[in-house]
Please model this.
Amino acid sequence: MSLATRRQRENIFRQVLDKAGRQPVSKITKASIIAGRDRRGATPFQARHFLDAMRALFRWAVKAKLVASDPTTGVDNMPRPKTEGFKVWTDDDIAAYEKRWPIGTRQRVWLDVLVYTGLRRGDAVRFGRQHVRNGVGTIKTEKTGIVVTLPILPVLSKTLEAGPCGDLTFIAGQNGRPLTKESFSNLFRNASRAAGLRGSSAHGLRKAAATRAANAGATEAQLEAIFGWNGGAMASLYTRAANRRRLSLEANDQ
Model:
């Protein structure tokens, strides 16, 4: 599992230990699991993560012969919340941020690393000079373990030259030190709000980068190579949208 998922599971198990750490394992029944899920019902994603963590734990415990049965068997997940996902940055959003944070500010480095690499925030905060050779960046992604190859475009190169960057990572805090992805998310959100943008996240910029690449004619294979996807599902979402956009524009030009 990725480091982020392991941290997420650890937090869940800590909560369980605080609640029932002194109880014998035989006391953890199906009813206990359902109660734990339902206590998190106001945040369905947390409820799903809780159930996933407990399922993994008890499947292992059954195989290790530490328990006779799995109390998570037959427990349904909370319905997946219907959401449009992270808000995609528009060109106007990016322009507003650039106006507030010009080249030469660390906040501008944050934006340009995200939008011109398309990296997830966990990879963006690790990305540095050691990953770049002859104008090409290469990094193994945290979430999937896929190695992505990224050309350092002239616009990004200009921003990185102006800095300020950290010694080990391009994205850095005020003291020049690397940031965790959680700390970076908070700082980037504050910088976005200072530019008059609400609900704009680092992941929304990854979506914007994928949209730009697809609109520029990138194929599904190229999108997968850039963004570290596989299986074609994610890439096809962007290529289909780009194809619809192109066909619409062509029809209006006739």
In short: The mean pLDDT is 86.
